[in-house]
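I am still learning, so would you mind making up any protein sequence you like and the tokens describing how it folds?
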Amino acid sequence: MLLNLKPMKVTCLTFNPFQENTYLLHNDTNECVVIDPGCYEKEEREELRQYIQENGLKVVRLLNTHCHIDHVLGNKFVADTYHVGLEIHRADEQTLRAVTAYAPSYGFQQYAETLPANFLEEGDTVKFGNTELQVLFTPGHAPGHVVFYNGSEKICIGGDVLFQGSIGRTDLPGGDFDTLITSIKEKMFALPDDVTVYPGHGPETTIGYEKRHNPFLR
């Protein structure tokens, strides 16, 4: 029996003063993965909760591409509300633990930490419903940065590695410019040109466009 499965849906909600892109991935089964929840204010958390409720979604995974403050502000809210454990790369645990110390200096006095329940590794497969995401290890912006790639639908949730016409900053603790460029050229640019990259900030782009036009990668 052939099933007429619809493509995975990618929903982007932009939160916090850093204008961080929070992604919700879901499919025909209504199982949902939340990636990099940046919701901090009550109104932002309600927007996320309302979208999930109105679309009848069941949150089954909570993932971080990396653990800089703007990408983890909503981790505890999602973990507690939907009873899911946080999943990150082990090399970014120190990045995550550091947030508690510096969050107040950024104005996030109410930040509450959630520690990882599971660690992701290069080559792991994240499964939910009828969808699979491949984990690619892409350090440079952060020591434990990963991206999530769906080959059948040519979609990559890219965090802060590659942006439209730009790349992730490397002047934060654990960042390294040469490592980032290597990650982009060996991991991201190994993907087909028509793969859409959904970054942690700003609009989506494609691998082919960045190969041709990104001034940092010529």
In short: The chain has a mean pLDDT of 96.
